[in-house]
TrEMBL record:
UniProt-recorded name of the protein: Unannotated protein
UniProt-recorded Gene Ontology molecular function terms: ATP binding; ATP hydrolysis activity; branched-chain amino acid transmembrane transporter activity
CDD domains listed in its UniProt record: ABC_TM1139_LivF_branched
Family: Belongs to the ABC transporter superfamily.
Domain ABC transporter: 2-237
Protein's GO biological process: L-amino acid transport
Keyword set, alphabetical order: Amino-acid transport, ATP-binding, Nucleotide-binding, Transport
């Protein structure tokens, strides 16, 4: 279980995350929703030590993450897919995916091969393009590649930041459903950051609504999805 307790992260005098607390249950999809500037991406970056929280605690499986290096956090079973379909354009699809296995390769060489097979089964299009340069892929294919690179490390917790950003609805549906199926089949815990609240709440078990860094609601996703007053006030639909 991931437990966020009284967490604050600031940029100078501005609190991007302001004293928030919630839990992400093991084997479930928890979505973090809110408008631009709500603090969603800062939250994920705080979990993986890309940003330094000013106060509070982040525990994963009972271990405090604040104060640890990003490398140690990844080794603890956490993978982070940042927004923007980030890939290394000059490397092939397979080389990009293999980068995600660097922390495991020495001790689990056979498992790395198995993990590569598994991600190709999740995203067959990538297998067809495994020798292509990543820079030649479409936006949807790049997002599949970024997710595959995270999954090849065999994470127990996957942090997904705006996977729908800039993608066609059909591609978004495919990617989100693939993650949902993986979660239900393997027990993967997912923390999904999304501006498209309707899509996120439709697949998630639990929802956390942020506004200007503050926690507004922490409820089952179905309850948040049906709360028209919250949607109108904070999500604009």
């Amino acid at each position: 279980m991931l437990i966020i307790n009284n967490l604050s992260t600031a940029y100078g005098n501005i609190k991007a995350i302001d004293d928030i607390s919630f839990k992400a249950e093991t084997g479930k999809i928890t979505t973090i929703i809110g408008a631009n500037g709500a603090g969603k991406s800062t939250l994920l970056r705080s979990i993986t030590a890309l940003e330094k929280p000013s106060s509070g605690s982040i525990t994963w499986e009972g271990v405090e993450l604040i104060g640890q290096s990003t490398e140690n956090i990844i080794r603890s079973g956490i993978s982070h897919v940042p927004e923007g379909h980030a890939v290394i354009s000059q490397l092939s699809v397979e080389e990009n995916i293999s980068i995600g296995s660097l922390f495991r390769a020495r001790k689990h060489k056979q498992d790395v091969k198995d993990a590569l097979t598994d991600v190709y089964e999740l995203f067959p299009r990538l297998k067809e393009r495994r020798t292509q340069m990543a820079g030649s892929l479409s936006g949807g294919e790049r997002q599949m590649l970024a997710i595959s690179r995270a999954l090849v490390s065999r994470p127990k917790l996957l942090l997904l930041d705006e996977p729908s950003l800039g993608l066609a609805p059909l591609i978004v549906e495919q990617i989100i459903q693939t993650i949902n199926d993986l979660c239900r089949r393997t027990g993967l815990t997912v923390l999904l950051v999304e501006q498209n609240a309707n899509t996120a709440l439709g697949v998630a078990d639990h929802g956390v609504l942020l506004a200007l860094g503050k926690l507004i609601a922490d409820r089952p996703a179905s309850e948040l999805r049906s709360d028209t007053s919250l949607r109108a006030a904070y999500l604009g639909y």
